Amino acid sequence: MTASRVLVLNSGSSSVKYQLLDMADRSRLASGLVERIGEETSRLVHEPLAGPGATGGRREHVGPIADHGAALKAVAAELAADGMGLDSPELAAVGHRVVHGGTRFTEPTVIDDEVLAEIRNLIPLAPLHNPANVTGIEVARTLRADIPQVAVFDTAFHSTMPEYVARYAIDAATADAYSIRRYGFHGTSHAYVSRATARLLGRPVEDVNVIVLHLGNGASASAVRGGVCVETSMGLTPLEGLVMGTRSGDVDPAVVFHLARVAGFSVDEIDSLLNKKSGLLGMCGDNDMREVLRRAGEGDEAASLAFAAYVHRLKKYIGAYSAVLGRVDAVTFTAGVGENAHQVREAALDGLAGLGLSLDPEANAVRSGEPRLISARGARVAVAVVPTDEELEIATQAYALVTQ
């Protein structure tokens, strides 16, 4: 029996998302979520999708789950109940989403003690995410020490950016001493979507230049030339770039000094303001685009202003990345807002006919879970909607590594 299954784990500070995939046919066998870990009201939702014991029925359990170790053991029990337990000889690897790989990790990596120590060393660059990623790795290693544990890094896809793009124009010695540079995030999504766009166009990925717009509560843009990232909007942290649900995106760095000197804000208060109380939420009180659109449609001035700022920033990046790439073959929308909010797509491309971008209004209005083109007939640049699949991308990279 050839081992072809990969369990993908995305460990957050109080949650674990997971999917079990069979890479023989790229099918999903099960998926689920454990949330509110460490609380009395912890919740596990498990959905078997295929496999020998799968019923297709969604199962939910509410009750205390003390820590990530207990969470992963509960996940293992749910999978075992469907005949797909972690002790299965068909399990080839566990793939872990790790947010920050720094400059050390630029490709998927089999985790050993040295690699795990390096991921811990990167915690200062991702203090909210890497600690939880480390915890998930540690627990999974105890459950199946005999199979490869593979780290797939959010930053890796963007490591191909030229040095003049990755560098901030600050004192070089200071930048080097404190690892200050642009890393970018959402890399697994940008990698998957850029390749899927090439397939949608029926062209080799090496021949396609695409601007990917990953628009969720967190949002980022990338310029991908022939399958290689040459520019992305997020930087040292996920704060830089587009207007997001709760993050400001680009601001004058002197805003930080002004708040400290004039308003007496501490560093932690400024961090919280820009990351958790800004973006759409800061401008209008809602970070859910559906609610922002509803309110704007009813004439709410604050929501209309927030939406206009969001769209304006998108247009700036589309224009800038068109200049960076020189030739653009496609602009692709993905993630929750990008896939579902046709108003955002329409507004973002309005007035960009000079860049070869125009929509088919009817195609744009269609809701679908399938990759599709929504550009007007004869448009010079294709416009696509491609549902992202970060779990499949992580599984694909992990399986390719362990079967080499």
Please give the radius of gyration in angstroms. 22 Å
Shape: globular
Share of residues in helices: 25-40%
Overall SS class: alpha/beta
Number of strands: 14
Overall mean pLDDT:
93
Assembly classification: single chain
Strand order of the largest sheet: 5-4-3-2-1-6-8-7
- Please mark out the parts with pLDDT under 50 across 5 or more consecutive residues, or reply none: none
Strand and helix order? EEEEEHEEHHEHHHEEEHHHHHEHHHEEH
Count of alpha/pi helices:
15
**How far apart are the termini?**
18 Å
Main beta-sheet strand count, sense and barrel state: 8 strands, mixed
Residue fraction in strands: 15-25%
SSE topology:
Layout (H helix, E strand, L loop, with lengths): L4 E7 L4 E7 L4 E9 L7 E6 L10 E4 L5 H14 L9 E8 L10 E2 L2 H9 L8 H14 L5 E5 L9 H4 L5 H6 L9 H15 L7 E7 L3 E7 L2 E5 L21 H8 L5 H10 L2 H6 L4 H9 L3 H25 L4 E5 H6 L1 H8 L11 H5 L6 E2 L8 E4 L4 H13 L2
Parallel strand pairs: 1-6, 6-8, 9-12, 12-14
Antiparallel strand pairs: 1-2, 2-3, 3-4, 4-5, 7-8, 9-10, 10-11, 13-14
